[in-house]
Each structure stands twice: as C-alpha cells, then as structure tokens.
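Hi V.,

Quick status before I head out on leave. The structure for the redesign project is tokenized and pasted below; the design run finished overnight.
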C-alpha cells in the first residue's frame, strides 16, 4: 500500500442477473508514511578511531520509517551537509577530519538524527 492508494472506496455486489445491486457506504482511506525513527550510525573501523591515512566508512540506517528515505551527513561546526546517501567515506583521513559526525534520515514528512559519533584521527 502506498500514498497513492489514499481515496474514497466502496463495495458493490450484484446478483448474476443484475436484478439486485447493493453498494456499501463510502469509506475514506488515508495512507500515511510511518515516521522515521531509530536512526543509527555504524563506523568501520568500529568506534571511529583511526590512524591518519586510514579509510573511514560510516553507514546510516533506520529502525522504522517508510520511504523513500534520504540521508545526509553532517559534522559538528559545518552548516552544509558533507554528503548525501546511506554511506559516507573518507578514503584517507587526516587529523582535521576528527570530530563529531551524525547522519540525518528523512522520508519527506519526518526527519530524525542519529546519535553523534566522535571520530578520532591519530
């Protein structure tokens, strides 16, 4: 069932000869998206601690929420999103890449953030 299935519905029944025809009362059905919740962030390497030059991959997922879902990546102190999509990758992390990261998930109706992850680049 999708949002496009919202509308007014009724049921009609008739005999084989169509001599008797009955129709139910009109029923309005409104389909809503399930709100986005339980946003979580996973890191590889786990814990977000890495050595300068190492690769860091962050993944964002939701426990609930109907789509389509979109994701954006944020770092504390940066107003604009770093990237979009369910994954964010730093191919060769530098000391300046350390800090708090979080992802935001939205389905167009609701938005939720993951808890922050502290990334440490040694």
């Amino acid at each position: 069932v999708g949002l496009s299935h919202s509308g007014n519905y009724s049921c009609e029944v008739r005999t084989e000869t169509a001599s008797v025809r009955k129709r139910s009362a009109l029923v309005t059905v409104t389909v809503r998206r399930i709100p986005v919740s339980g946003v979580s962030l996973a890191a590889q390497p786990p814990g977000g601690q890495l050595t300068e030059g190492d690769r860091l991959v962050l993944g964002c997922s939701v426990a609930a929420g109907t789509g389509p879902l979109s994701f954006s990546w944020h770092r504390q102190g940066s107003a604009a999103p770093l990237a979009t999509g369910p994954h964010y990758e730093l191919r060769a992390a530098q000391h300046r890449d350390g800090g708090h990261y979080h992802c935001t998930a939205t389905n167009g109706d609701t938005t939720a953030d993951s808890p922050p992850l502290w990334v440490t680049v040694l």
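Above is the designed sequence. The mean pLDDT is 94.

G. will cover questions while I'm gone.

Best,
W.
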